[in-house]
Amino acid sequence: QVQLAESGGGLVQAGGSLRLACAASGRTFNNYPMAWFRQAPGKEREFVAARTPLGRPTNYADSVKGRFTISISRVNDKNTLFLQMNNLKVEDTAVFYCAARSGGASGSADPGQYDYWGQGTQVTVSS
After folding, report:
1. Are strands 34-39 and 46-51 parallel, antiparallel or unpaired?
2. Any idea what DSSP says for residue 80?
3. What does residue 91 show for φ and ψ, rounded to 5 degrees?
4. Burial degree of 92 (CB within 10 A; 0-12, 13-18, 19+)
5. Strands 18-25 and 78-85, how do they pair?
6. How do residues 62-109 score in pLDDT, each as one tens digit?
7. Could you give the CA distance from residue 80 to residue 34 in angstroms, rounded to a whole number?
8. Which of 3, 35, 59, 100 has its CA 20 to 30 A from that of 119?
9. Nearest alpha-carbon partner for 96 in 1, 28, 8, 32
10. How far is CA 33 from CA 41, 46, 74, in A?
11. Cα 29 from chain centroid?
12. Interatomic CA distance for residues 77 and 82, integer angstroms
């Protein structure tokens, strides 16, 4: 059974930083795209960043370029997806979700392309 578990959310002041982590278990996602999405209250889920371990370019939403960095590492024998978020803004407040594809090669911005989702972690940025 595939499981994605996010952690690292919290409350931070504008201009601050947070690092989100998503531990993947149940299968190896070494060769398949993984991504971060977010959903603010009353809004649709939106793409944040995607990483394709096959060496293709990392994909970021325009709103986070230069502030967020997506990466993947092996931690405690589990593939872990990270999202380093710097210079956070009030408008970044949302529930952040990690997602993984079971196939494909591109880091799609379309949430419908992803097969596995975590439960989400809340990020709140205060002014």
Report:
1. antiparallel
2. E
3. -70, -5
4. buried
5. antiparallel
6. 999 999 999 988 777 777 899 999 999 999 999 999 999 888 777 889
7. 10
8. 59
9. 8
10. 26, 16, 15
11. 14
12. 15
Q: Report yes or no: 45 and 96 within 8 Å, Cβ to Cβ.
A: no
Nearest C-alpha neighbor of 89 from the set 12, 7, 10: 12
Q: Which amino acid is at 125?
A: V
The tokens 């992803």 sit on which residue? 114
31-68 confidence digits (pLDDT tens): 778 999 999 999 999 999 998 876 677 889 999 999 99
- Cα–Cα distance for residue pair 9/96, rounded to 1 Å: 8
Copy the structure tokens of residue 76: 């405690």
